[in-house]
Design goal:
- The chain is about 30% helix and about 20% strand.
- It starts with 10 loop residues before the first strand and ends with a helix.
- Strands 3-4-5-8-9-10-11-12 form an 8-stranded parallel β-barrel, surrounded by 7 helices. Strands 15-14-13-16-27 form a 5-stranded parallel β-sheet. A 5-stranded parallel β-sheet has the order 18-25-19-20-21.
- A hairpin with a 4-residue loop joins strand 1 and strand 2 (about 15-20).
- The chain is an alpha/beta fold and about 675 residues long.
- The chain has 3 domains: about 10-345, Aldolase class I (TIM Barrel), CATH 3.20.20; about 375-465 and about 630-670, 3-Layer(aba) Sandwich (Rossmann fold), CATH 3.40.50; about 480-515 and about 555-625, FAD/NAD(P)-binding domain.
- GO terms for molecular function: FMN binding; iron-sulfur cluster binding; metal ion binding; oxidoreductase activity.
């Protein structure tokens, strides 16, 4: 009997029945700009995994509407022919797929972009041209044509991208639309663009073609839609011929996190529920939903009819198949880190996944059963060692995993204690399940010497890192601690704390110190999260935020976060760094850059900033300034003639990088 009856229940749309309630949501991976065979392999793998409906990354509907120069579009039959490779692969794998049709409007990285009123975006560099009435009609026809070409290419339907601040959102709000003609003014005229679009598409493609509309339910920017306007639009798009409404939350311009790991799971399903209650077609929830049991609960309690997940399908293409087999413990959970997906996308790199290096490399990183099993020792059960051990064992090697600690996890055991990084527990649960499934032998709680592994064919050193020693007078003062003293060993920390080093470890340590650990953090409490970021859960405030003041619980420590470099402290992630910074500023953390460390004594930490000497009266001084590799076994093993591989921190001890560690471990394991 299924543990997830609501999630796995078929959905009858009248002309087609979807096998379950799981949508693989849209995300731009960078594969769109490669030959279609690579994208075909990517989507087909998810179809094999049982996803009910796949939605592609955003495909431009015209030259003006593309995300950037030379980026993917659907404007002619030659482009449709290339897409047929994708649809054929998905259908051969037993799946169904919709193409997301997108017009970026002013959110385009090219100088020919357009918008309803010519108002520029605060985060995109190119000012848009104001659309004439003739241009609006032309772009509408281009969109309809793109939908028809998608049907010709074999897609089962399309998703109309009506959220995230793209062109449709720009038409719907006074933030983007200051027109006073038939395309702007009151809301009836502002919503004319999406309604004309839907009617035009439905007339062109017929009734037996899935139309999904991505509805912005909370804009989270000034001058966005009221919730009454959102409901009105939802009802009107249903009348116009849409089959499914999907949830969109927040513009790209919003200064509120919506999908990062510090956002609680299912943080916005309460909004989706209100829309679901107002319409008669299926409504899908999205944003920070990553496990079958959570998805099941959302549908069972009536918050949504379907669940749309993008990044969780990067993390585990067999997510649905594992749920159907009642093996939730084997799901490789998306931790919402964004480091290998969105961070890559915004740097114009190909996406992958921190916890699944095969993502987007399905045709390149392949785990083939070995015909020459080896007896391999892995020393270090952190992310790199776990990744190598599980993949090597899956391929058929005999693997023994050693660690001086009594539990697996390495640095993840430290990181998972930081408020906002609780999802790291899921990665350790997954690796634990894989160690058992693939028969990895564990040898924990013992520091390994060279003689302990002399009988193995090969040895993998994944021993991680140790904190780097700094040259600051007074470093041996009782006030001084390492981040391991704080996060791992739970040593007492004074009321006033100076943190030396503002990289990822420094920011994590600050985040840990500014929370009262007797209270549930906002990353686990939806109401606390909305209060902290100023979101109106009563849905009265325009855009969900106007006039709402954020409120945070006070920090139990006064914290200074210090950095040698003179540049702004922003955090390590391109798409999440600003969130960490804003969260710390809300907790009154003082961020100081361009710091020269002078000495430590009973007075505190003596520093010089811009030529001015200062003394920070810190009770505790926490060192978070880099690390060095642990490789003490390497020479001894090499002297014994052993083949030794270095991975993770033992190889490169730069800023802690689980993405590199897990990827390096998997790639080595695929070749030994």
């Amino acid at each position: 009997m299924s543990q997830f009856p609501h999630l796995l229940q078929p959905l009858d749309l009248g002309f087609v029945t979807l096998p379950n309630r799981v949508i693989m949501g849209s995300m731009h991976t960078g594969l769109e700009e490669f030959p279609p065979e690579r994208q075909a392999a990517f989507f087909a793998r998810r179809a094999e995994g049982g996803v009910g409906l796949i939605i592609t990354g955003g495909i431009g509907v015209s030259e003006l509407g593309v995300l950037g120069p030379g980026m993917c579009k659907m404007t002619n039959e030659d482009e449709a022919k290339k897409h047929s490779v994708i649809t054929r692969a998905v259908h051969d794998a037993g799946g169904r797929i919709c193409m997301q049709t997108l017009h970026a409007g002013r959110q385009s990285y090219h100088p020919m972009n357009v918008s309803p009123s010519g108002k520029p975006s605060p985060i995109y560099p190119f000012p848009p041209q104001k659309m004439t009435a003739e241009m609006i009609e032309s772009e509408l026809e281009s969109w309809v044509n793109s939908a028809a070409l998608a049907q010709h290419a074999g897609y089962d339907g399309i998703e109309i991208m009506g959220s995230e601040g793209y062109l449709i959102n720009q038409f719907l709000t006074t933030r983007g639309n200051e027109r006073d003609d038939e395309w702007g003014g009151d809301f009836q005229r502002r919503m004319r663009f999406p309604l004309e679009l839907i009617r035009g598409i439905r007339a062109r493609v017929g009734e037996k073609f899935i139309l999904v509309y991505r509805l912005s339910m909370l804009d989270l920017v000034p001058d966005g839609q009221t919730f009454d306007e959102v409901i009105t639009l939802a009802q009107e798009v249903e009348k116009a011929g849409v089959n499914i409404i999907n949830t969109g939350i927040g513009w790209h311009e919003a200064k509120i996190p919506t999908i990062a790991t510090m956002v609680p799971r299912g943080a916005f399903t309460w909004v989706t529920r209100k829309v679901k209650e107002a319409v008669n077609i299926p409504v899908s929830a999205s944003n920070r939903i990553n496990m079958p049991s959570h998805a099941e609960d959302i549908i069972a309690r009536g918050d949504a009819d379907m669940i749309s997940m993008a990044r969780p399908m990067l993390a585990d293409p067999d997510w649905v198949k594992k749920a159907a087999a009642n093996h939730e413990e084997e799901v490789n959970t998306c931790i919402g880190c964004n480091q290998a997906c969105l961070d890559h996308t915004f740097q114009l790199l190909q996406s992958t996944c921190l916890v699944n290096p095969q993502a987007c490399y399905e045709d390149q990183l392949i785990y083939v059963k070995t015909d020459k099993p080896k007896n391999i020792a892995v020393i270090g059960a952190g992310p790199a060692g776990l990744s190598f051990a599980t993949v090597a064992a899956e391929r058929g090697h005999q693997v023994t995993l050693f660690d001086a600690d009594t539990k697996i996890g390495g640095q993840f055991n430290i990181a998972k204690q930081v408020p906002g990084k609780e999802e790291f527990n899921e990665t350790l649960r997954y690796f634990g399940a894989m160690l058992t499934k693939h028969g990895v032998k564990l040898a924990l709680g013992k520091r390994v010497g060279a003689d302990d592994v002399k009988d193995f064919d090969e040895v993998v050193l994944a021993t991680g890192i140790i904190p780097r020693k700094l040259d600051i007078p007074g470093l041996d003062h009782p006030k001084v601690m390492s981040y391991l003293d704080v996060l791992r060993d739970k040593k007492p920390v004074g009321k006033r704390v100076a943190i030396v080093g503002a990289g990822g470890i420094g920011m994590d340590t600050a985040e840990y110190l500014v929370h009262d650990h007797s209270h549930v953090p906002s990353s686990l409490d939806i109401r606390e999260f909305c209060k902290e970021w100023g979101i109106d859960m009563n849905l009265v405030a325009r855009s969900g935020i106007e006039g709402i003041q954020s409120s945070v619980s006070p920090s139990p420590h006064q914290v200074w976060l210090l950095q040698r470099k003179a540049k702004k402290i922003i955090g390590p992630g391109k798409t999440t760094g600003w969130i960490h910074r804003e969260a710390l500023l809300k907790k009154q953390v003082q961020m100081v850059t361009g710091v020269e460390y002078r000495k430590i004594d009973d007075e505190g930490l003596h520093i010089r900033v811009n030529g001015e000497d200062r003394v920070l009266p810190a009770d505790s001084i926490v060192i978070c300034a880099g690390q060095e590799p642990q490789r003490e076994l390497q020479a001894a093993l090499a002297g014994m003639g052993k083949t030794v591989h270095l991975i993770g921190g033992a190889d490169v001890a730069a800023e802690l990088d689980a993405k590199r560690a897990i990827g390096q471990g998997a790639r080595l394991a695929a070749t030994v």
